[in-house]
Amino acid sequence: MGIVIYWDYRSVDGIQLPVQRIISAVIGSPVELILGDHFPLEGYHRIRRQYDGGRIINRISLFKRLHGIQDHFLLVIPDDIYADSSDFVFGLARDSIGSAVVSTARLENEYYGLPGDIHLIIERTAKEGAHELGHLLGLEHCSVPECIMYRPESLSELDRKERYFCPECRLQLPPIR
Ligand SMILES: [Zn+2]
Ligand SMILES: [Zn+2]
């Protein structure tokens, strides 16, 4: 089964290829990149001004069925998302249907009133994307702070992670084909 990244065209532009390359290197598998349209989202919460991540995952599942996509599917969007248990999430994955989403909203320095940094947004999007794809490949959260499968509670914890799966997580990754 392959891996597809669908990049909603409204997401940060100009970093698609480096993010694809890093994710592919970290996971150790080829990753296909689709430069997509405005992905049909649902689950907007008017008061929170965020999308319900769970409903976006449902929508991805429908999209995959409509287009006959069997691959693991990672959607990248610029919209802020929340989940049942969290006020916000950088991303979300549901391995049972091979679908995941990453939001770049809170990965950009600009969100925090800081000057933009192209290298940081590439690193953060790639690490978060690799993390969600790790879930789709069957991995759970890891307690090693540098490991891709560590669950960051903040941007600084995300920045502390390295571009790698710790040895224990790496053992659980499916063999490279
Ligand atoms: Zn996670
Ligand atoms: Zn680990």
Structure description:
- This protein is α/β, with parallel strands linked by helices and 177 residues long.
- The protein has helices spanning 16-27, 53-66, 118-136, 155-160, 167-172; strands spanning 3-8, 32-36, 44-45, 50-52, 72-77, 81-83, 86-89, 91-94, 99-103.
- The chain has a five-stranded mixed beta sheet, with helices on both faces. Strands 3-4-6-7 form a four-stranded mixed beta sheet.
- Strand 8 and strand 9 form a beta hairpin.
- The model has no long low-confidence stretch (mean pLDDT 96).
- The structure holds zinc ion (2 copies).
List keywords for this structure.
9 strands, 32% helix, 177 residues, binds zinc ion, alpha/beta, four-stranded mixed sheet
Main sheet: strand order: 2-1-5-9-8
The largest sheet, given as strand count, sense and whether it forms a barrel, is: 5 strands, mixed
Parts with pLDDT < 50 across at least 5 consecutive residues: none
Ligands (ions, cofactors included): zinc ion
N→C terminal distance: 10 Å
How much beta, percentage-wise? Answer: 15-25%
Q: Please identify the structural class as seen in this structure.
A: alpha/beta
- Choose one word for the global shape: globular
The residue-averaged pLDDT reads 96
Number of strand elements: 9
Q: Radius of gyration, Cα only, in angstroms?
A: 15 Å
The run of helices and strands is EHEEEHEEEEEHHH
Number of helices: 5
Helix content: 25-40%
